[in-house]
Structure formats: C-alpha cells, structure tokens
C-alpha cells in the first residue's frame, strides 16, 4: 500500500513514524515534509495549499490513502477536492472544519445543541467589547475568532490588559472576538477518531500551552505534553461520551456537517467533575500526536482506512493502548520571545540516527541547507518524546536527550511533568 501524508509539522512527523511501523506499508510520501519526516518517508516539494498539485501527485503515484492533518490543507478544502475526484482521503471537509476555523461558530454551535461550554460573549465591534470588559470579573479570557499562532488566546488579569488586546485585535481587522469566563479546573484534551457516526478515543493527554516555566508567558500551540492523564476513569469517560462526544457528532449530522477524521476536543472539569468544551480542533494537535500515538498499539493505518470508508464502527469498538506513559517537550528557537535563528545548524541529531523503542526525535520548522545540514527554519524546531513504564522514567529520557541537542537561541520549558501537583491542571 502507498500512503501520502499532507503537512510538515510535529504531528505529521509522528504520524509518518507510526505508519512506518506497519510492515505492509510499501511507500510513504509526505508533502511538503521536513528532514525529520524524510527519515521515514519520501518528501515531495508541494505546499499544503496546492490542493490540485497534491491530488495530481496522488493520482499519478496510485496512492491508496491520503492523510490530511495539515490545518492549511483542510481549510483550503483538500478533502472536498479529493472526494470530488474519487480519491481516498482521511480528514474532514472544509465545512466540517469550521468548528476550528471559527471560534464564534463553535460557541454558537455548542450553545444551540446544549453541549456544555464555558460562559461567553461574542463581539463584532471594539467599543462593545471594551464596554463589557469594564465591568467584567477578572481574570477573563479573550479569543480571536479565527485561528492564529498561539491560538489567539489571551488570559487577562485586569481591564487595562483586556482593553489593549481588544483594540489591537480589531485594528488587525479581526471581525469578531470572544470574551469567555475564566474557570479553574482540570484541563485535558481528548482526540477522537470518527467516521461521522461512530467514535473511538485515543489516549487523553495534557498539554502545557504557556511559553515560559511556571505557566507564564504567552499562549502557544504547546511546549510539552504527557499522556495518559491520571484522573481519567470509566465514570468520566461515560460523562464525556454522553454529554459531549455523541451530542457533538449527532449535531454535526443534523446540520449536514458530517465530520470524518480526528476531532480533538479540549475540555475542562468543573468543581463537580462535569466536563465542558473549551475548544475543538479539526485534526490531532502536535502535542496529542507526539504523546497519544506512541501509546497506540492498534495499527494506525487500519484505523485511518476504515474511518475513511465509513467502517470504523464495524472494525473497532476500542483501540488497544499500551500500558505506558508518554512525555514530549518542544525545543524552540527564540521561544516566542525573540526571532528564531533561521539557518542555524542543529547539533546532536546524529546521536539519534538509530530508532529507539522508547525515544523519538520529531521535527517541525527545519530544513536542509546546501551542505545537507539540518538547520532551524522557524520557531518550533525539535520535539523529544519518550514512552516508558512510568511518567518519571519517560520524563528523564526526554530531558537526557534534550541535553544532547543544541542550536542557536534554543529554549524549552524545564518543568514539563516534573512537578505534577494540582496547579498543573489549571489554565495553562
């Protein structure tokens, strides 16, 4: 079988790595890929938004299954285009992906269908938002309507902070923004594989979203993560399925937005352990892919293919999950503080040329220079992930490996997992 993966980030690297473990896979291609992905797949220089070129490549190379996890490709309608051409592709349509591409749409959708979410208000004018923020209870959360790096999420401690963010957002031509009530509670995300009618979860995980240690700094797409989460049990799983997952899928069907792919649901538990939706992503996130996929024992290709043809419920009731713990830590250049050192050589990668059962080195913003050296090409550079029998051992493996990798302006959080106390589950 031949597989094409569309994207170039950490999650695509993790997916390609996982697919390569299937001996029945003849060839894996990736567009556009990166040097880390090239270890397992043939990278093809086609950008994520070049939908027609990607489809032509799939036809010419007789690809059995294309996997679209790049948000750019999904939002540009790659699934719609492939489906029109009769090509097998895993991922949601552009319309179904609106759950992620518009936070205001998601909030209205959840409210309309009585799916629990945090209290919110949507504003289309800066003056309205500022007036509301004057009398609001702090802290509060402000979210841009459309997706941006760091997810466009801001935690405001006072009115002065909120006013600045509100005014800047509309100056940047933001059409609307969401002001959300701040809630304390245990946070986690749950990636769900669904064919639009049936749903099976992967391992739930926790991601550290703040840029700096001690949960300070700006919000990012993730600086580290671990799985599984210690407070998940059968009772909570039942609540999530009953109150969130199946109502969400049923509502999508009712509105002719059948979602096939990976629904990544970000949730928070209130004081009574009732889950509320904080956000929904239209594919697996980088953090989830790097800690949940290593724990997946069931063959990933079989899962994705059965989902694509609408047979997930026929093939799987659950997935086999290894009884291990998984940790990932991201190494950035600049780290959302200063500009990345583009072109700087990444040292130490040759220490990890051979695959290890308990350690993975994933790449995102990297490329090869004219000397065939792997160099920095953006902020999110390297992620080190490990699976082990204990969380402590997985964490130690990760930080030991990080010490062997170096590049200019290398930054990372040194507190991922190290102090698992109640505060780690609060808003990060």
Explain what you see.
The protein is α+β, with helices and mostly antiparallel strands. It folds into 4 domains: 2-93, Rossmann fold (3-Layer(aba) Sandwich), CATH 3.40.50.20; 119-181, ATP-grasp fold, A domain (Dna Ligase, domain 1, 2-Layer Sandwich); 186-315, ATP-grasp fold, B domain (D-amino Acid Aminotransferase, Chain A, domain 1); 325-425, Phosphoribosylglycinamide synthetase, C-terminal domain (Glycinamide Ribonucleotide Synthetase, Chain A, domain 4, Alpha-Beta Complex), CATH 3.90.600.10. 28% of the residues lie in helices and 27% in strands. It has 13 helices and 21 strands. The strands form 5 sheets. Strands 12, 13, 16, 17, 20 and 21 form a 6-stranded antiparallel beta sheet that branches. A hairpin with a 4-residue loop joins strand 10 (186-194) and strand 11 (199-201). It starts with a strand and ends in a 17-residue tail after the last strand. Mean pLDDT is 92; it is low at 421-428.
